[in-house]
Design goal:
Blueprint lengths: L2 H5 L8 H21 L2 H4 L7 H8 L3 H13 L3 E4 L2 E4 L1 H6 L9 H9 L6 H10 L15 H25 L11 E5 L5 H9 L4 E6 L1 H13 L6 E5 L12 E5 L7 H14 L5 E9 L7 H13 L5 E2 H11 L2 E7 L4 E7 L2
Helix pairs in contact: 2-5, 7-9, 9-10, 9-11
InterPro entries: COMT-like (IPR016461), COMT_C (IPR001077), COMT_dimerisation (IPR012967), SAM-dependent_MTases_sf (IPR029063), WH-like_DNA-bd_sf (IPR036388), WH_DNA-bd_sf (IPR036390)
Keywords: Methyltransferase, S-adenosyl-L-methionine, Transferase
GO biological process, one term: methylation
């Protein structure tokens, strides 16, 4: 070994990715706290100073500044000349008056925070079983608890679905289809998006009875009762209503491959010739090295369901094996993609 090599310092790897993990554990809850404290609607009318925000929320400057600075760094607030104001993304997603309000899903994450605790996710990993609602699911609760939990859950699903629901129907030509069956359609957000884009299209939201009741409320808000109806039923045991377009959003993510194969085959057998299936969800890349959002979504599924994230090639294989042709994978809104095929 030469003297020069002994004196040359070794390259040190940047430690910021390690800090991103640690600080993310603290940083992201700050946004949920800002939401819970109603900081975003507080700033809807006018910018406010730190002192004014503290006075209105009855909290001290140190915690307020920590939350406000995190929200600013994350892009939800702007800070200029000593005043905090909303950024366009906060106005679009974090005000309840907005049709794209995301806050109901944040409410769900806050109310069920035990599901994404370290202890709960560790248990989910070691047991390979969901942990939400004590691992028993909504429908094992008392009738009163069911109604409240289903309402909260369905409202949360609408919250994170409606923006992408208004976007994806513009990606595909659905002009020749008559009826979209929104299987496990929850709030009906995607049916609302589809019929809003395609005026000749009708839709059916197919889900459990309590979910259908709540979906009808969202449908009525849009004045679409004459074009979207609900039908109670189980996608596992009941005959699917007649339709020439089957749509699944974040349904395949809820289930292991064997159950996804069952749904794919059931759709193939139910659809007429020329009928189309559309799967909408967050996808891994084909190498399954990312993206981070799809990997984290798979962890979310670990806590809540039996499912996981899939790649576009995995879902395409499912469709091919069921008999679908002309299979395509297309990017949709944000982190979402579409996988679609046609029955010959």
């Amino acid at each position: 070994m030469t003297q020069d090599s002994m004196n040359t310092p070794k390259q040190i790897e940047d430690d910021r990715p390690l800090w991103d993990i640690v600080l993310g554990v603290y940083g992201y809850p700050a946004l949920l706290l800002a939401h819970k404290l109603k900081i975003f609607p507080l700033l809807a009318d006018e910018p406010l100073s730190l002192t004014a925000i503290c006075g209105k929320l009855n909290i001290k400057a140190r915690p307020a500044e920590a939350i406000l600075t995190t929200a600013t760094a994350a892009g939800f607030l702007s800070f200029q000349d000593g005043y905090y104001s909303l950024t366009p993304i906060a106005e679009h997603y974090l005000l309840e008056t907005s049709p794209s309000y995301f806050g109901y899903f944040w409410d769900l994450m806050i109310d069920d925070d035990q599901v994404h605790s370290f202890a709960s996710l560790k248990k989910a990993i070691l047991s390979d079983s969901p942990q939400v609602y004590g691992g028993s699911g909504i429908y094992h609760q008392s009738p009163e608890e069911q109604v409240e939990q289903v309402r909260r859950f369905t409202r949360g699903m609408y919250s994170f679905s409606i923006t992408s629901a208004l976007y994806w129907p513009g990606i595909l030509d659905l002009s020749n289809y008559q009826t979209m069956l929104d299987i496990g359609g929850s709030s009906g957000a995607h049916s609302i998006g589809a019929v809003s884009k395609w005026p000749k299209l009708q839709a059916i939201v197919f889900d459990f009875p309590l979910v259908c009741e709540i979906a009808q409320e969202f449908i009525a808000r849009q004045g679409l009762q004459d074009r979207i109806r609900t039908q109670e039923g189980s996608m596992w045991s009941d005959t699917l209503p007649a339709a020439d377009l089957h749509f699944y959003s974040t349904v395949y993510n809820d289930w292991p491959p064997e159950k996804c194969n069952f749904l794919t085959a059931k759709s193939f057998n139910s659809l007429p010739s020329g009928g189309r299936i559309i799967i909408h969800g967050m996808l891994y890349n084909d190498e399954k090295t990312g993206p981070f959002a799809a990997a984290a979504f798979s962890m979310l599924m670990m806590g809540w369901t039996e499912g996981r994230s899939y790649s576009g090639s995995e879902l395409s294989t499912m469709l091919t094996e069921a008999g679908f042709q002309d299979i395509e994978v297309r990017p949709a809104f944000g982190y979402y993609s579409l996988v679609t095929g046609v029955k010959p």
